[in-house]
Amino acid sequence: MALDKKTVGLSADAQLAVDTIMETGMFRDQMDVAKLGLALAIARRLPPTEMAGVPTKWNVGSFDQDGQVRNSVLALYSDYQTPYRIAESLMNQGVPMLLEYIDGSGDLDLEGLLDEATASVGDASPA
User: Fold this and answer.
1) What whole-number distance in Å separates Cα of residue 65 and Cα of residue 79?
2) Which member of 15, 70, 78, 89 lies 3.0 to 4.6 Å from 83 by CB, making a disulfide possible if both were Cys?
3) What is the mean pLDDT of residues 23-43?
4) d(CA 50, CA 92)
């Protein structure tokens, strides 16, 4: 069984997407972008993938100060025991999708983003 991560990071593609999104001025900091990307991937019920060679960016203590990310991931992806590995995978998948949405709409309409994310997935569980 793989040990869970003590730090999470962004792939080069996800970091580029975060940098581009930050230039819009819609977000206060990069962690907010990453967490919204994580939420988008969860809403789309994406399966976690193995991440290799991702540079570390945030300690899980600062990324998830109150444990809500950990608890949410464990509840939604109950077949897994490594919530921060899962969170890292999902945010790396979700951030580029977030950029694509912003590029396509020219804005960040959270209700529209959520509607679009959930429209094609039905009632299936994420794991």
Assistant:
1) 24
2) 70
3) 95
4) 11
